[in-house]
Design brief:
The protein is α/β, with parallel strands linked by helices. It is built from 15 helices and 14 strands. The chain has a domain of 71 residues. The longest helix has 64 residues. The relative contact order is 0.15.
Length: 442
């Protein structure tokens, strides 16, 4: 066809169809690529989720395996060694499930490069709920106002110490809250106290799990700041805890007998070598204000009963049985903050208990290290040079020979991806079966 000197050719129908087909194929290819990308991301996410779950359940498997060993050892009774329970739990420190492994470790108290297999004994540290003002002031960079505020947080009254803070201070904050006016339940809670800085509490151990993580040993590459020396500097948390509780389980596997509420028959059933008069004298003393079980080490029953009483004084074997089976604390009540376990504490940590003189601390640690089985009963402390019955009674306000709780930090690892999950549990041995009272997952 010609128009105005130009020639026009009608396009063939097949050419348009080809163009449409090519465009359609391009669109379909883009859609398919998008679907494939989404599917790949979903598959990768699914694999990642599966790996994360596998790592978590491996970590949980390590916890359950350790708890089973702990219960079995507690039910078996007196093993004759202060290290039997932690050593047995350490046997379950590593293991594997289908496609994943676990490892349970803890750092030694203080600033140490050494890590050990098995759970940590929080009684190797000083329970902050039992610290005095002088004790608190031993902590690095502690100030008098912060020490007073910590004591105000813990005590039951609403009257602030000289430099402290009570409810009136916290109610004026932009996000107000109230002090507990009772024992702290974790070191995270310590950071709520007026003037307390997180870096002082945690040091490099920012998640307070007692394990040196890669981000805690890489200098300034990631948070928190650290010196990348391969050593966990845990700040105050290296020496203090809020997770130790007075042991409530007897050597027999039963709850300890509360002598404040027990009858003579109850007591003789637990300590069969006692006669009725001895039992009555013990129970009468248990009802006195301020009485402690350890008082019987330095105070004879004849002194308690008074002149002319025919009561027989306790023999060493009877005293040992009392410490193994009895308590002046209600095992069914709120857990009481735990004393320091002389079998696991470091010499450096004892410096934060100002009531224990350095010479006494030295002699206790030397005697502990020289005893292959450690101290299994408070009566064993009488064998330490210069430790008289009265001194044992005095220092037993701060020391014990057993643990009422453990901290398990279990890291699970998926073998295929290398992905890890960490489970930190605080475990109470107050009753059987043992119970997890605090759990954190990372």
């Amino acid at each position: 066809m010609r128009r105005g000197g130009c020639t026009f050719r009608r396009a063939r129908p097949g050419a348009f169809a080809l163009i449409i087909v090519l465009l359609s194929l391009s669109v379909l290819a883009m859609i398919l690529a998008g679907v494939q990308a989404v599917s790949f991301r979903q598959a990768a996410s699914g694999r990642e989720t599966l790996a994360r779950f596998r790592a978590y359940w491996a970590a949980r498997g390590g916890v359950e395996c350790t708890l089973a060993r702990l219960e079995a050892t507690l039910q078996s009774g007196n093993t004759g060694s202060a290290y039997a329970i932690p050593d047995d739990m350490a046997q379950a420190a590593t293991g594997s499930l289908d496609g994943a492994t676990w490892r349970i470790t803890h750092a030694l108290p203080g600033r140490s490069a050494e890590a050990r297999d098995g759970p940590a004994d929080p009684h190797a540290k000083v329970n902050i709920n039992l610290m005095t003002r002088d004790d608190l002031l031993q902590l690095e960079s502690m100030t008098e106002d912060v020490a007073d505020s910590i004591l105000d947080w813990i005590d039951e009254d609403d009257t602030p110490n000289a430099l402290g803070a009570e409810a009136g201070y916290y109610s004026q904050l932009p996000s107000p809250y109230e002090p507990r006016n009772g024992p702290m339940r974790s070191l995270f809670e310590l950071e709520l106290v007026a003037g307390v800085e997180s870096d002082l509490v945690r040091g490099e151990d920012w998640n307070l799990d007692g394990v040196l993580d890669p981000n805690e040993d890489d200098g300034d590459e990631s948070w928190p700041p650290d010196n990348a020396d391969g050593v966990l500097d845990a700040g105050w948390s290296a020496y203090i805890t809020a997770s130790s509780w007075e042991p409530a389980l007897a050597v027999s596997g039963q709850s300890k007998l509360n002598l404040v509420e027990a009858t003579s028959d109850d007591l003789i059933a637990r300590v069969s070598t006692l006669d009725p008069l001895q039992a009555q004298t013990i129970l009468g003393y248990a009802g006195r204000a301020g009485a402690r079980l350890e008082d019987f080490i330095s105070t004879n029953l004849s002194q308690i009963a008074g002149q002319g009483s025919p009561v027989r004084n306790l023999r060493d074997d009877q005293l040992r049985a009392l410490f193994e089976e009895c308590t002046f604390i209600d095992p069914k009540g709120e857990p009481s903050p735990g004393r320091i376990n002389i079998n696991t504490v470091t010499r450096e940590t004892l410096d934060y208990v100002t009531a224990i003189p350095p010479g006494v601390a030295d002699s206790l640690i030397l005697a502990r290290d020289a005893a292959p089985t450690g101290f299994t009963n408070m009566m064993d402390l009488l064998e330490v040079p210069s430790m008289s019955p009265r001194r044992v009674t005095t220092y037993s306000s701060y020391l014990t020979v057993e643990a009422g709780s453990y901290v398990l930090t279990s890291t699970g690892r998926d073998e295929a991806s290398g992905m890890e999950a960490r489970l930190t549990c605080v475990v109470s041995t107050g009753v059987l079966p043992v119970s997890i009272v605090e759990q954190r997952v990372r």
